[in-house]
């Protein structure tokens, strides 16, 4: 398959039902190099459907699809603070349309989101096409082992995991030029189903009006605004509403954690939450509270960030389909 702008590559997590297809992709991808392996080395490189099913129960595995057919796969296993990347394969007929690159991007996004410090993999000297891909993805050769796979030579490639986005606390004056991007960020969140106080369809004018009010509170010192960006593009934001009551000057409410759908699964939300906690401490706030839709991805995120569940309020807000949803209240002592 030659590269073409119409080629649509989709990446998703693998399921047990994908075992046969994954085993087939592994075999077809490495079959042309079988003579370069020892028989034992080749048997460990490819897998039977049963072996793939066992891996799916113990590892993180992704598949790439073109026209609903599985054309590539990659796996990853945590090794302490590192993530071991393995079983990277793309069907020969599907090479040239960035399937491998997309799979490696997905693994790196996972590594960033889970806080891994480095990624590493093992490859053989004769897989030149794969080696070039790894190098383009930022991997470099390392002297560390292993150097042998049952008689087949190996070498290791390593990449340090670094978040590509930056997070800044912005003043009203600094944020105002970003108003169109901030309004688009809020629209993106609402239209993708996030429960953030608005219902779709959200017009640009309404989103812009919200941000104008927010920036006014930033200027008054009532609110802290943190914005993440990458190469000039706003990728996410979070706010701290500073309690002004005399008996509540030690606390703040985390509000409007937003990450653009194009930049999700890169660890940005967790990084924004970390930055919010740092800003809270710097402002003398030792208690953070927030609420989020029960059963949402955000609920799991806050638990991972160390927030304690205070309780659930039923029928708290309207959903996009106008049904009532419950909200979970969280808190964290800093």
Largest sheet: 7 strands, mixed
SSE string, helices as H and strands as E = EHHHEEEHEHEEEEEHHHEEEHEHEE
CATH level 1 class label of the largest domain: Alpha Beta
CATH superfamily label of the largest domain: Gcn5-related N-acetyltransferase (GNAT)
Question: How would the global form be characterised?
Answer: elongated
| Helix-strand makeup class | alpha+beta
CATH topology of the largest domain: Aminopeptidase
- In total, the number of domains comes to 2
Extended strand count: 16
Mean pLDDT: 93
Low-confidence stretches: 1-6
Per CATH, which architecture of the largest domain?
3-Layer(aba) Sandwich
Give Rg in angstroms: 23 Å
Tell me what portion of residues adopts beta-strand conformation.
25-35%
Order of strands, main sheet, comes to: 1-2-3-4-5-9-6
Share of residues in helices: 25-40%
Number of helices: 10
Termini gap: 54 Å
């Amino acid at each position: 398959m030659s590269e073409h702008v119409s080629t649509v590559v989709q990446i998703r997590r693998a399921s047990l039902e994908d075992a046969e297809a994954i085993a087939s992709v592994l075999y077809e991808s490495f079959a042309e190099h079988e003579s370069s392996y020892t028989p034992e080395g080749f048997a460990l490189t490819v897998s039977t459907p049963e072996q793939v099913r066992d891996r799916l129960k113990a590892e993180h595995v992704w598949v790439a699809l073109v026209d609903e057919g599985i054309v590539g796969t990659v796996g990853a296993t945590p090794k302490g603070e590192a993530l071991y990347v393995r079983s990277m394969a793309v069907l020969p007929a599907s090479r040239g349309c960035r399937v491998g690159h997309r799979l490696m991007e997905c693994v790196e996004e996972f590594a960033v989101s889970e806080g891994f410090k480095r990624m590493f993999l093992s490859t053989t000297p004769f897989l030149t096409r794969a080696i070039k891909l790894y190098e383009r993805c930022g991997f470099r050769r390392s002297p560390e082992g292993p150097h042998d796979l049952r008689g087949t030579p190996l070498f290791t490639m390593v990449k340090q995991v670094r978040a590509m986005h930056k997070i800044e606390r912005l003043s009203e004056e600094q944020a105002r030029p970003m108003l169109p991007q901030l309004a688009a960020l809020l629209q993106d969140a609402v239209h993708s189903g996030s429960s953030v106080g608005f219902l779709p369809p959200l017009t640009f004018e309404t989103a812009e009006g919200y941000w104008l009010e927010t920036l006014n509170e930033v200027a008054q010192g009532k609110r802290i605004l943190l914005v993440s960006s990458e190469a000039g593009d706003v990728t996410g934001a979070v706010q701290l509403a500073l309690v002004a009551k005399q008996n509540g000057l030690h606390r703040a409410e985390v509000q409007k954690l937003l990450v653009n759908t194009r930049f999700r699964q890169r660890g940005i939300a967790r990084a924004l939450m970390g930055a919010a906690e740092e800003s809270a401490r710097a402002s003398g706030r030792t208690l953070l509270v927030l609420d989020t839709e029960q059963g949402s991805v955000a609920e799991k995120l806050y638990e991972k960030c160390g927030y304690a569940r205070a309780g659930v309020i039923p029928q708290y807000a309207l959903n996009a389909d106008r049904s009532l949803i419950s909200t979970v209240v969280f808190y964290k002592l800093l």
